[in-house]
Amino acid sequence: MSHQRYPSHDPIKEPHSISLKVLRTPPSPAGAGRARRSHESRPRSPTRPTRGLDETPTPFSSRRSSTSRCPSGSAYVGEHFSCTLCANHEPPVSTDVAAALPTKRIRDVRIDAEMKTPGAQGSVQKLQLTGRASDSSSSSSSDAAATTTATATADLAPGETLQRIVGFDLKDEGNHVLAVTVSYYEATETSGRTRTFRKLYQFICKSSLIVRTKVGSLPGTPGGADGRVRRKWVLEAQLENCAEDVVQLERVELNLEGGLAYTDCNWGPAGKPVLHPGEVEQVCFVVEETAEGGGLEPGDDGRIVFGVLGIGWRGEMGNRGYLSTGKLGMRPVAA
Length: 335
Description:
Elements: E1 18-24, H1 29-37, E2 53-54, E3 65-66, E4 69-70, E5 75-76, E6 80-89, H2 95-100, E7 105-116, E8 124-126, E9 129-131, E10 148-149, E11 154-156, E12 161-169, E13 174-187, E14 192-206, E15 209-222, E16 229-241, E17 247-256, E18 260-264, E19 274-275, E20 280-289, E21 304-315, E22 320-330
Parallel strand pairs: 3-14, 5-14
Antiparallel strand pairs: 1-6, 2-4, 6-12, 7-8, 7-11, 7-13, 9-10, 9-12, 13-14, 15-16, 16-20, 17-19, 17-21, 18-20, 21-22
Protein name: Trafficking protein particle complex subunit 13 N-terminal domain-containing protein
Organism: Verticillium alfalfae (strain VaMs.102 / ATCC MYA-4576 / FGSC 10136)
GO cellular component, one term: TRAPPIII protein complex
């Protein structure tokens, strides 16, 4: 797709000494292997091309913005979106060019990121970055183990890179905009100046699962010495994979209100179902009042509230996702 260029508000018109690359962080290879083996014998539907992170007009204020594109794959509600941000001190293309340019030292390189989410308010959240206190291509391997919240700056020699990792839990469908700001101090033998630029990336977060639920009543069971009949219900749910990728359901669980318990009527640890795009899995739970429940009363809306249904899955590349429904329940049936 075409990219729109943004006017620069930076009075300095020279090219920047620092370049920025934004790369989607892949999941662990071990997880990818487990997800793939579970459906090797199944024919796979053709995969449609996915769109990367594209720069787009946004209300973010910026001193300088430039167009860019980075590979992202698909992004779905319930997944954890993670990117590696790389600020590179680009060396001169040749020694002759380097000799003709003034010597520059790049100090105090800093990366910041924000995420604009969809919705009526269009909220902007400042993102926490992780990485080493001095994370460049020349750092020793022992430093790699010291991963902390990345708020410090770094000095970069030509060819070195400052890396930061940003993560964000995707909760809403629609357009998301990742804004990355890079600032640094550029020093020469006679002067110095602070320079800043920003890049804006757009990606679309899509729905991953469609959940349809139905609740019905079952015959109750005697409650013990008090003679009260403990009510029972059956909760059914259809889980439809509306994503473009194959997913494996890892767990489906109920988080119930007090005074309730449930029996899981679904698969065991060795039988986790695999859903291709468009396929549906049906799950079932039997919900029952406990002896200590004391009887559940309808709420203000006339419903008996059971709790929340949570669904966890793993994508074919090992990426995990989780989403939960609103509070489920039903209206009492008159005898």
